[in-house]
Design a protein that fits this description.
Helix content: 25-40%
Shape: globular
Strand content: 25-35%
Largest sheet: 5 strands, antiparallel
Distance between the termini: 5 Å
Radius of gyration: 17 Å
Number of strands: 10
């Protein structure tokens, strides 16, 4: 198992509100995490930072080499819930941070599986046998329009309201978390990314890069492509190779 990550402020924003974490655990296990903060420059920074720290600390503290599949699934959910409550409480105690929140997409890589938790419009893709698949569904108004057939995926990438999400970590005391368990096969590549990449680069372009490049080169190239496409948002990518 190998994991690399890279983040970039992009071509428009002054502050990078994204955060990512790569964590090695026991017995070849690991954590890959991507967050995209929202709520003003300070609020977005704070929310994504809290999420990164709390999720990492929770998983590091409670991870067990001998835990089963159900325990691993509960662990990723608990980590996001802990982050949600920490962000929410911090915002309640500081008026300048009111309304802050963050997306979260994480994969706990354990015993040839990925235990995934997802909130917001940061995404998880899998490239298997040179074919890219999006494994998470955006929690956004634009995704709902795509689901209703009112927009194509290409139109969604250009829509002015593409950044409006319907779920975020930290905005309310509780949060609905999507959970997935994925079996990993040798050669699989997972891509976790913020919408600074997915709203700029078509899937075909991402697929081609993941097919042709090492994961280190792929991370660099995907950031470059997003910036060449306008770099209208912060850009973060984490790539896992099984």
């Amino acid at each position: 198992m190998k994991i690399v990550g890279k983040t970039d402020v992009g071509m428009v924003r002054d502050v990078n509100q994204d955060a990512f974490k790569i964590l090695a655990l026991g017995q070849g296990a690991g954590l890959a995490l991507v967050c995209d903060g929202m709520g003003g420059a300070r609020g977005g920074d704070t929310a994504s930072y809290i999420a990164k720290q709390v999720i990492t600390d929770t998983i590091r503290e409670k991870y067990d080499d001998a835990m089963g599949a159900e325990t691993a699934k509960i662990l990723v959910r608990e980590a996001v819930l802990e982050a949600n409550r920490s962000i929410y409480q911090t915002a309640r105690e500081n008026a300048e941070l009111a309304g802050m929140g963050t997306t979260v997409v994480l994969a706990l890589l354990y015993q040839n599986h990925a235990y995934v938790a997802h909130v917001g419009d940061s995404r998880l893709y899998r490239c298997r046998d040179s074919k890219l698949s999006q494994l998470t569904r955006d929690h956004s108004y634009i995704q709902e329009m795509v689901d209703r057939g009112e927009l194509s995926p290409d139109q969604a990438r250009q829509h002015p309201d593409r950044n409006f999400i319907t779920r975020a970590v930290g905005v309310q005391w509780d949060v609905d978390i999507d959970l997935h368990i994925l079996e990993l096969k040798p050669g699989d590549r997972l891509l976790l990314c913020t919408d600074g990449l997915s709203s700029t680069c078509p899937d075909e372009q991402i697929e081609r890069v993941l097919q042709q490049e090492t994961i280190e080169e792929a991370a660099e190239i995907l950031i470059q492509l997003a910036n060449q496409g306008g770099g209208h948002d912060n850009i973060t990518v984490v790539i896992v190779e099984s």
